[in-house]
Design brief:
The complex is a heterodimer of chains A (353) and B (287). The radius of gyration of chain A is 25 Å and the shape is elongated. Helices cover 54% and strands 13% of the residues of chain A. Chain A is built from 15 helices and 8 strands. Chain A has 353 residues and is α/β, with parallel strands linked by helices. Chain B has 287 residues and is α/β, with parallel strands linked by helices. Chain B is built from 11 helices and 8 strands. The longest helix of chain B has 19 residues. Chain B is elongated, with a radius of gyration of 21 Å. The termini of chain B are close together. Classes of the chains: A alpha/beta (353), B alpha/beta (287). Chains A and B meet through helix 5, helix 8, helix 10, helix 11 and helix 13 of A and helix 4, helix 6, helix 7, helix 8 and helix 10 of B.
Amino acid sequence: MTRTHIVVVTGAGGVGKTTVSAALAIGAAAAGTRTLVVTIDPAKRLASALGVDSLGNQPSMVPGTDGLWAAMLDITASWEAIVHRHAAPEVADRLESNPFFRAIADRFPAAQAYAAGEQMAEYSEGGAWELVIVDTPPSAGGLDFYLAPRRMRELVGGRLLRWLTGASLPGRRALYRVTARPMLRVADSVLGGPLLEDIAEFLLDLRTLYDGLSSRARSIERLLGAATTLVVTTAAPASLREVRRFYSGLGEISVTPAATIFNRDLPKEWMAPKRLPAIAGLDAEEGAILRENLRRWGDEARKTQDAKQELMMRHHTDVHAIPWLEDAPTTVAELAALAETADLTGLLQPPPR
Amino acid sequence: MDATPLDRRLLIVSGKGGVGKSAVVASLAHVASRRGMRALALAMTDPIGLATHLGAEELTPKAHELLPGVEAAFVDRSHALDEYLRIQMRVPRAAPTRQLSRMLQVLVDTAPGVREIISMGKPIYETWRGDYDIVIVDAPATGQLGSYLRAPATIASIVPSGGVRDQAERMRATLSDAAACGVLLITTPDELPVVETREMVASIEAEQLVAIAGVVFNRTLPDLGMSRSRIAALPPGPHRSAAQLHAGLYESQQKLLPELDSSGHLPFLFGLMTPPEVAARLAEEWT
C-alpha cells in the first residue's frame, strides 16, 4: 500500500483556498493519483461541482472525474465523534450535555482545527487515497491547524486543573481540597457561585479523554510534519499580512511551506500599456473609457507585481500565480484548466526526506 | 452614503475576514473627527489592521489620539482582564490580584463566554463612562461575532449570582438598546461574504441581541459604460482584456447586490494608495 501524502492548503479567508484546493485535486486526479479533497466551507456552486451538497465526513466520488473524491467536513459532528471515540460512553454523554463543552466545541478555535486534523488522520490511515488535500478552516495566522493538536492536549490535559490543584494527575479529592482554599473563595465571590468548581468538574471529565486524544494528537502532529504546506494569498493587504503572520509563526511549528500560490494575479503588460490602437468604429468616448480602465487596472497589476516580488524577497518562497478570472471557476472542467494554466500539479510532490 | 450609524454611543463593525472592515472603521473615525466628535476606535482582534489605516504602526491598550478628537486603542485581553477586575468588579488592590488574574487568565481560555465578555467589556465600559461621543469597534469577524454578542447571556446562564452576573446583565441591556448600540456589517459583493452576512443578519434579528445599524457593500465596481458585445468586438490586447475583466466582475457583483438589504455602497478603490489614504478616501463617501 502506498503511503498517503498530505497537502495542507492555508491562507486568509476569501483568497480562494477552496478553489485552489479543488483545482489541485482535480489536476492530481487527472494525472492518475487517487485523490481526496477535504473542504471546510465551500461556496455553494463549488460544493455542487464537487458533488458535496450536504455536510458529511463521508467522502463521495466527484461526478465527471476519475479517481477524485471530495468531502465537506462537518466540524461539529467531528467533535462529537472525537468525544465518543476517546471517552467512556457515560462520560461522553455527560460532556455533550455540559454547557462548557458545547461552548468550547462552538468556539475554541483549536477544537475546530483539531477536529479537521483528526478527520484528516482518519482519511490518511484508511489508506484508500494516495493524496489527501486539506483546505484548512479560516483562522488567525493560519497556524491554528498546526498548533491544534498540542493545544488540545493541553486543554484535555487540564492546564487549569493542574494549576488549580498543583497535581499532575489531579483526581476529585485534590479538587475538593483545593476549592476550599481562600484564594478560590475570593475568585468565587468575584465570579459568583461555584463557577470554578463547576469548570473543574467539567475538566475532570474532559481529562478522561487525555490518553486516547494525546496519542492521536501526536500522530496528527507526525502527519503534519510530513505534509506539504501551500500558502494561498492575493495582493489584498489583509491577506498579505496573514501570510507574514504565518511565516513569522513558523518557528513554533516545524513546517516549511513548499510554495506560495498567488491568486488573482494580473498581467504585467497592463502596467505599461501601449497606445490604444486605432479601431474602426470606436468612438472617442469609448476610447477614453478603455484607456481610463486600463490605467486603473494597470495600477492593480502594479500592486500584484509588487506583492509577488515582496513574497519572494521576504520569505524566499516560490510564487505560483493564478490569473484573476471574471468568475471563480466552479466546474470540474474550469478547475482542471486552472490547474493546468497555473502549473500547480508539480507542487504536490512529497518533500524529499 | 448616509453616516447615521454614527448616531449611537457604541458602533460594532463586523464582517467576514478580508472585506475591508478595518478600513471602514478608520473611515468612520475620519467622519467622526470631521464632525468634531470625540471618538474612541477600538481594535478587538488585531492591533495592526486598524492602526495602519489610521497612520500608526500598532495600537496599544492605552488610547492615543490619531486624528483630531479621535483616539484609538487595542483591546488586549490580559490588560482588559486586569482593568475589568479592578474597575468593573472593584477587586481591591489588596486582594491577591496577580494570583487571581493569573488564575482567571486560564479561566478565560477555558470557560465559555469569559474571554468574550472580557473583550466586550472594554468597549461597553467606555460607553458607560461617557468620555467619548461614540465608541467604534473593529470587532471580530462574523464567524466569531455571535459568541461575543451572546457572551453576556452565556455568562448569565452559567453564573448563578454575584458581581459578574450583574455586570453581564447590564452589558446585555446596553447591547440590546437600539438607540445606544448597533452593529454595522461590512461585506463585499462576493458569494461567500454575502452568504455569511445574510446568515449573520438572520441570527442577530432572531436573537435580538443587538440592533443592526446597517449593511454596507465595500469594493463595489463602477459600470464600465461599454457593453459586453462592444468589448468582445475589440482586437485582442490589454485594453480588451482589462475591459473584459472589469465588465465580468461588475456583472457578478450586480447579481449579488440585491441579495442583501444594504444601506449603502463603498467603491472599489483603484490606484496606488496607502492604507491611510484608503481610509481618508472612503471617508469622503459618508455624508
